[in-house]
Design a protein that fits this description.
about 325 residues; alpha/beta; TIM Barrel; three-stranded parallel β-sheet; 13 strands
């Protein structure tokens, strides 16, 4: 049986949470109990929770992993991330976070791997920290958010990060930003950002990178599209047809179709728990490009059900083992 590797799990250094709790500006954090707290991205909005020690305590997390039957987790700092801080503070906290994640990986070898946090508000510093995370800390990829303080990540100013990630063969996880580009619209109709805002934001980012030729320019670049590929697997027909019909009107020309890039250079995690959606995604990207994820320790789902849903997919045992762990091993070069 293959190892069970959770490619999408999050960790907050305790020091990071305490720092955010002292911030007066948005985003900030509020401790509501000894092991619980809430994140505020803007006035009147709660967009994240800490609700158990596993959010910031590696030993508590290992106990949860053992109960779940998870052999290893790939740790990443989730939103609110360091891009939300002034540039100098962002650089400091990116380094502190990466040092913390690397220390956990070294303390518990084989149980934890990690994705680097970068201060994307400063591209030069991001490149320096990416270099350090790869060469000195041995981290296994990068977490990049669906927008950087409201900037689309398809802008050319971010291309050097994609170039360096491709050179080092470090996958880039495209994760929702705490404040999606549709935040005001979501707030106006009183819907949680997690419902549409997050998945629309990551889909806009990934499809934008394809349309604007970033994956063509960097053929070694690999992306991990969170939350079962956002809405991409369900809008494939529109993506293909309208690239052909309107792409040139917007200045897009590519030697291949958008799906050819998506199905070769993009991986998705399995976070859904809705079997019809999982079957749709599976039919689109295939068993070789889905990696098991739980979003642990967020309360937006039940990790036990996330793992069970992978085992319930209409696949052979060989392909189920690919999704449970082998694809993550291959993508992140864990062995």
């Amino acid at each position: 049986m293959s190892k069970v590797i959770d490619i999408h799990s999050h960790f907050f250094p305790k020091e990071y949470l305490d720092y955010m709790a002292k911030r007066k500006e948005f985003p900030n954090f509020e401790w509501t109990g000894p092991t619980s707290g809430i994140f505020h991205p803007m006035e009147g909005v709660i967009a994240g929770h800490v609700h158990k020690p596993g959010h910031y305590d590696a030993e508590a997390r290992i106990k949860d992993m053992d109960e779940l039957g998870v052999d290893a987790q790939v740790l990443s700092l989730t939103a609110p991330d360091v891009q939300s801080f002034p540039p100098a503070e962002g650089v400091i906290w990116a380094k502190k976070t990466n040092d913390c994640l690397a220390e956990i990986c070294q303390k518990y070898p084989g149980r934890f791997y990690a994705l680097a946090t970068l201060p994307f508000q400063d591209i030069d510093e991001s490149l320096k920290e990416l270099d350090r995370a790869y060469k000195d800390l041995g981290l296994n990829g990068i977490t990049m958010f669906s927008n950087i303080n409201g900037k689309p990540i398809t802008l050319e100013e971010f291309y050097p990060i994609y170039e360096q990630a491709a050179e080092y063969e470090l996958p880039v996880m495209i994760h929702p930003a705490l404040t999606p580009l549709t935040a005001e619209a979501m707030k106006a109709v009183k819907l949680p950002f997690q419902l549409f805002g997050f998945t629309l934001d990551t889909s806009l980012a990934v499809v934008g990178l394809i349309f604007q030729g970033v994956l063509e320019k960097y053929p070694k670049l690999k992306l991990l599209h969170c939350h079962l590929g956002g809405v991409v697997p369900y809008l494939v027909g529109r993506m293909e047809i309208h690239f052909g019909s309107y792409g040139k009107d917007w200045g897009h020309t590519l030697p291949k179709t958008p799906s050819e890039y998506y199905k070769s250079q993009v991986y998705v995690d399995s976070i859904s728990m809705h079997m019809p959606a999982m079957k749709c995604c599976l039919e689109y990207v295939g068993a070789d490009h889905i990696c098991m994820g739980t979003d642990y320790p967020h309360r937006g789902g039940d990790p036990k059900l996330f793992i069970a849903s992978v085992r319930d997919m209409p696949l052979s045992e060989k392909d189920i083992n690919k999704v449970l762990g082998e694809n993550a091993i291959r993508l992140l070069k864990l062995e």
